[in-house]
TrEMBL record:
It comes from the Eukaryota. The keyword Cell membrane does not apply. Its cofactor is Mg(2+); Ca(2+). It catalyses: CDP + H2O = CMP + phosphate + H(+); IDP + H2O = IMP + phosphate + H(+); UDP + H2O = UMP + phosphate + H(+); GDP + H2O = GMP + phosphate + H(+). GO terms for cellular component: endoplasmic reticulum; extracellular region. Belongs to the GDA1/CD39 NTPase family. Pfam families: GDA1_CD39 (PF01150). Transmembrane segments: none annotated. Hydrolyzes nucleoside diphosphates with a preference for GDP, IDP and UDP compared to ADP and CDP. In the lumen of the endoplasmic reticulum, hydrolyzes UDP that acts as an end-product feedback inhibitor of the UDP-Glc:glycoprotein glucosyltransferases. UMP can be transported back by an UDP-sugar antiporter to the cytosol where it is consumed to regenerate UDP-glucose. Therefore, it positively regulates protein reglucosylation by clearing UDP from the ER lumen and by promoting the regeneration of UDP-glucose. Its EC number is 3.6.1.6. This is nucleoside diphosphate phosphatase. Keywords: ATP-binding, Calcium, Disulfide bond, Endoplasmic reticulum, Glycoprotein, Hydrolase, Magnesium, Nucleotide-binding, Secreted, Signal. It comes from Umbra pygmaea. InterPro entries: GDA1_CD39_NTPase.
Length: 438
């Protein structure tokens, strides 16, 4: 893998240094004098006068164009003093479904959804700050799974919407993010928000992100064998506070929750969708409906005269992960993993955690719940017909895919310190760095 395909070491270091400066969210650390963050932005954008040494508020807008939804993050930062780095003050978050990839054959509609979400930014960011506020969209697995020409058409529509907006549009403001960057930026963001990025400690948390089209795993190995036994492109190396960090990180395109459903149903790349019915022992026997993903609609069904349940479903899911998901040499010595996106959503649906507070689970909790759901599928047929399939896939992915022990602890969360647990915050800082805001 090229250095550019990762996050370049110097750029990662600069980005992380900026992120770590926001430790007012978790802990206060003395910082060396730095350039006024907002003043640097003023060198590139229209400048509005303000009293010397006064506090200044500025903003950043990041779109996360995922496979099952498009989300907007509007970040508010405060520059208290030119000699100090800014503080992350607030995040305004909103999402809309389906994702851009659902409009592969109607790119104008994809642009419309982005235009609608931009209203959140327009109501959050004061009008006088619009021309100074960077506007960025990064697409993930949904567009990576599309034919290149269809993905390009969607991105072109988004660029048109951005060009019509009143915000500042940087170079390369609309792009498809590679999976490695997705994992690295999420890891940096979560470890910043949880206060684990210190100069004198290597204790960190791992991250597990389960989207619709892809899934990511990123952690800091404690054993050199993990690095040595891993494929070269599963390792990302960068410097941080006079220490060199080597992350184990990989994104599996096609192993997100929705893509896994397709694989289990035998519908990946299938033709004749108008007349074919795709069946699975993971679905209730009497269930029959249409299901859409990635702009295509599939007719799906349980097996009326066959068998259903956890054991048969698990065998289907093994075919989705076996030989595809790499098992790191060691996971047992790694600290707690933070799991979000569909890990969180399905744990809520299964009643394992509170939908607002989240909670801590062991891998065995997913397994136990999957068995209960699959053996009582008729109970969930009307509300969550795919819950058995999804919970079984998560269990299989964690155990037989990544190779986690059943006792491994997962922290299920949507937010840390009121900030969404995703790559979006890290990506926002990365763009600030490109604008020489540091």
């Amino acid at each position: 893998m090229s250095l550019q395909a990762l996050v370049l070491p110097r750029r990662v270091l600069s980005m992380v240094l900026v992120i770590l400066a926001l430790t007012h969210l978790t802990h206060a650390q003395p910082q060396a004098p730095v350039t006024d963050f907002s003043a640097s932005l003023g060198n590139l954008l229209p400048c509005f006068s303000r009293p010397v040494n006064s506090s200044h508020i500025f903003y950043g807008v990041m779109f996360d164009a995922g496979s099952t939804g498009t989300r907007i993050h509007v970040y508010t930062f405060i520059q208290n003093d030119p000699e100090e780095l800014p503080v992350l003050d607030n995040e305004m978050f909103h999402s809309i479904k389906p994702g851009l990839s659902a409009y592969a054959d109607m790119p104008e509609m994809g642009g419309y959804t982005v235009r609608e979400l931009l209203k959140v930014a327009e109501t959050t960011v004061p009008r006088l700050e619009w021309k100074r506020t960077p506007l960025v969209l990064k697409a993930t697995a949904g567009l990576r799974l599309l034919p290149p020409e269809k993905a390009a058409a969607l991105l072109e529509q988004v660029r048109d919407v951005f060009d019509e907006s009143p915000f500042y549009v940087p170079d390369d403001s609309v792009s498809i993010m590679n999976g490695t960057n997705e994992g690295i930026l999420a890891w940096v963001t979560v470890n910043f928000l949880t206060g684990h990025l210190h100069a004198n400690t290597r204790k960190t948390v791992g991250i597990l992100d389960l989207g619709g089209g892809s899934t990511q795993i990123t952690f800091l190995p404690q054993s050199k064998k993990t690095i040595l036994k891993s494929p070269a492109d599963y390792v990302a190396k960068f410097d941080l506070f006079n220490s060199t960090y080597e992350l184990y990180t990989h994104s599996y395109l096609g192993n997100g929750l929705m893509a896994a459903r397709l694989a289990a149903l035998g519908a990946l790349g299938a033709e004749g969708l108008d007349w074919r019915v795709f069946t699975s022992s993971c679905l209730p026997k009497k269930f029959r409906d249409e299901w859409s993903f990635g702009g295509l609609t599939y007719r799906v069904s349980g097996i009326p005269d066959g068998y259903a349940g956890y054991k048969l479903c698990y065998q289907e899911m093994l075919n989705v992960v076996k030989g595809i998901i790499h098992q790191p040499y060691e996971l047992k010595h790694t600290s707690v993993f933070y799991a979000f996106s569909y890990y969180y959503d399905r744990a809520v649906d299964a009643g394992l955690i509170d939908g607002t507070q989240g909670g801590m689970l062991e891998v065995r909790d997913f397994k136990k719940s999957a068995k209960e759901v699959c053996n009582k599928m008729s109970k969930y047929c009307n509300v969550h017909p795919f819950l058995c399939m999804d919970m079984t896939y998560i269990t299989c992915l964690l155990k037989d895919g990544f190779g986690f022990k059943e006792s491994t602890v997962l922290q299920l969360t949507k937010k840390v310190n009121n900030v969404e647990t995703s790559w979006a915050l890290g990506a926002t800082f990365d763009h600030f760095h490109k604008l020489k805001i540091h």
